[in-house]
Amino acid sequence: MEPPDVTVVVVTWNALPWLEQCLDSVRGHDLVVVDHGSTDGSVDLVRERRPDARVIEQANKGMGGGNNAGMRVAQGRYFFLLNSDAWVVDDGLEQLVAYADAHPEAAVVGPRLLNTDGTLQRSVRGEPTLWRLATEYLFIRKLAPRSRILNPLYVGGFEHDRETEADWLFGAALLVRRDAADAVGLFDEEFFMFSEEVDWLTRFRRAGWKVLFYPGAEVVHVGGASHGGRMYVENLRGHLRFFAKHYGMRYAERARRLLLWSLRLRALVLRRDVYREGVRFLSSGDAATLLR
Fold first, then answer.
1. pTM of this structure
2. SS3 labels along the chain
3. Tens digits of per-residue pLDDT, 174-202?
């Protein structure tokens, strides 16, 4: 028997109520579900709705670690990494595979992401730098959201209406070529959650592969369904880890200071606990200490 074109990998952690729609949208495709200790019946739902799926139950190793476990047992020429709070619209997965077959230089192809109300969810991103981080955390991008100078992290002005090469794509739905992953390696599991796809797609590009956005396929993404926005510190740590790995610890320390002063300003003006939490984390040590 020939291997399937694509193996879908879904990582779950208390993924209800979106999981059923996620699974139904990839019916007919090889499926691996990696569960990280759900207590809401997610595993039972998978076994009921998709008895053909391979289910891996393991300790919570984050998004990178969960996807890695799924990819290690996957059989397809492509891996389709799909968040548990996302679902494919119509034949979007088949469209992605056809597009990737026509572009053998692409390690990763990503679809257009939509919010549940049908509006665009911006997924094409620029590689993080200190300036790009500043435009986000100091609200500079709000001054001119369509400007690529003042909104470079979100590629301001790009309407997500045409094919394009990207620095990286938001990781809610990614089609990954097995040959490219074999050559470059899987996710770096030092990234527990957040920035793991930034690191991975940066590694693909630096190895000579391309990351392509293809709007002919669409995926609806709820966003934050599993972590509920409760992992703000992990998001900050992901920024620091990316900069330390790709630019060096001195650059990461400069990023820590930028983030610290940005969040102090946010906490003063907006008075939100999440920003105070971020300030406490970033002021508790230098970048090297926070990454140990």
1. 0.94
2. CCCCCEEEEEEECCCCCCHHHHHHHCCCCEEEEEECCCCCCHHHHHHHHCCCCEEEECCCCHHHHHHHHHHHHCCCCEEEEECCCEEECCCHHHHHHHHHHHCCCEEEEEEEEECCCCCEECCEECCCCHHHHHHHHCCHHHHCCCCCCCCCCCCCCCCCCCCEECCEECCCEEEEEHHHHHHHCCCCCCCCCCCHHHHHHHHHHHCCCEEEEEEEEEEEECCCCCCCCCCHHHHHHHHHHHHHHHHCHHHHHHHHHHHHHHHHHHHHHHCCHHHHHHHHHHCCCCHHHHCC
3. 999 999 999 999 999 999 889 999 999 99
